[in-house]
Amino acid sequence: MGEGGVIAGQIFNGISVASILLLAALGLALSFGVMNVINMAHGEMLMLGGYLSYLACRVLPGPGGFLVALAVAFGGTFLFGVLLEVIVIRRLYGRPLDTLLATWGISLILQQGARSLFGPIGVEVVAPHWLNGSVSMHGTLAGLDLPYVRLFIIVLAIAVLGLVALFIAKTAWGLRLRAVHQDREMAEALGVNTRTVDLVVFALGAGVAGLAGSVLALISPVTPTVGQSYIVYAFLVVIVGGLGSLVGTALAALLVGLFSSSLQIFTSVSLADVLLLVLVILFIQFRPKGIVVRRSRAIEA
Amino acid sequence: MNHRFLLKLSGFALMACYAASILAGAGARPNVPPSPAPDTPAVKVGVLHSLTGTMAISEVTVKNATMLAIDQLNASGGALGKQVEPVIEDGASDPAIFSQKAQKLIQQDKVATVFGGWTSASRKAMLPVFERFHSLLWYPVQFEGNECSSDIMYSGAQPNQQIVPALDWAFQKGYKKIFLLGSDYVFPRTANLILKKHIVQRRGTVAGEEYVPLGGTDFSSVISKIKLAGPDIIFNTLNGDSNVSFFKQASAAGMPPSKLAVMSFSIAEQEAKAMGASLVAGSYAAWNYFQTLDTPANKKFVAAYRAKFGEDAALDDPMAHGYIDVMAWAAAVRKAGSFEPDAVRKAAAQLDWEDSCMGKIKFAGNQSLYQTAYVGQLEPNGDFKILWQSKEPLMPDPYDQLAFPGKSCLIK
After folding, report:
1. pTM of the model
2. Is A301 a domain residue?
3. DSSP for B346-362?
4. How large is the average pLDDT for residues B368-396?
């Protein structure tokens, strides 16, 4: 494999990592930005999506089974998000520390629940055969293989980003969401039901995380702690991206993904993690509000 | 709520994430089986493995094999006329908890000995406890050597009984350009340190050396580096679930085990079954026990385990060691006529077994086990086909002479 192939391969790897990070972080960014809620159980939505797609693939082992599994993962975690919002988040509104503790507790309960139900051993979702194989490059990029699975994840992430952007920009619900995002009190005064907007935002975020868990299952096992290994990076992405900004989140995911994959080629995987954290800390020093600064009409408390 | 507060809050959230993983194991309850009737004298032994957390995948089955051995021991009259009462504790995949629980077993339960541990980190955490109280730990897992304590019986393979024989086999097969891939902790780092010395001495090439944090799931960059290096074989010391991610992503990138040979040191029958054997079929492994060993003693062991834990249960190397540790302890107690750790460990070093489930074994003076090295290839059904075995049981050597010249193990 030539040098061009290596560089192209790492860029591809970076984008591939970024697309999973984007799916994982999107929900966090939304609930952070619109509701000021930090959901510590967000990683477990990933895990839930993974286990749901495992179950769906068990029931429907055919080649189309995985597409159903994606839908099940999204729908299931969406509903779980609704449940979580109604039972817990809504009751702790405006009490960020309590929300933090409560969602952390939920995260522990869900992890142990998964351990009791499915066992500590990771379960596996076998990729359908149409995702086996890879695109092989020729010419200057000879030797470079782009696995279908990773291409699929990238396409899915872009599609989800597009759909969420459309939802926010074009639908009536999106309009309400933007209104609440900009100025909650004023939106409320104008008759927007902010409770329902919060519910939709939270459930949507959970659903997208479920999708992330579902595609993650194609490349790694689903374990009770799978969410934990991604939640830290998802938080990084949200902080770098700027709270509650879709564009910022997408850019930050891309940055984090590309940085870590290029650092990994020059150093080792462990050292790349350390360097990434150092870079993020430096970045926050210079742009404490992230890539895209939120312009709010609300008076900051 | 302003932005700065949210940033602080999320910083706290990140810290809490880490704290959660530490605290998660702390509340685990010990599982103490009912004690025998008060008129039968019993001797307590500790069984200390991770029953929760990331290591539970491997350690629960070793605990099961240990319990099988204790049951069989009790059925045949126990030790020195006493029933053996196991006190089971959960190390929760956390070295600090292993150390606490070891101390609890020794001080509070007054156990005669302890069977347990898996990761080197857990063993290193327990070592000072056993040395302080002069108790005895039976450690059932292959490890990196470079340690030698009179208070531990190391029945798992030393490097010269697993990784070095695997290297000899690879060179015999013509695999001379070797890529070293491992999880980032003490066993892979030390194993690779030894391997590198031996590869150079045998005039082979180290094609590359990469480590991924424990539990890591993204191998895209590592796979690029492997492709670039173009090795003959990968020597894989990844641990746990990382293996699934690695094999899945390597296959997707056009490097299934059928195209690029992989020799794994942490994939046994249990792990292969949990990962889905089709994923890793065709890869190689080096151990001192395979479930497919064709001996009457092994068939009896496999049948007894399956009768107790289910017909489709898989057995592997650390389980076999967990089982023989109990049997060796009982025999040593019988020979010494005492439960006293000093007498037991000295008696153990004078015993040998012609036909254990692992074949011919005996404890050496350095309290490690003479045992045969095997290389197997994983078949699609999850069993290993045995391709090669050492001519005789190999003498255990905790200090590889190339990597640690001049060091040796002296136990009085």
Report:
1. 0.81
2. no
3. HHHTT-EEEEETTEEEE
4. 94
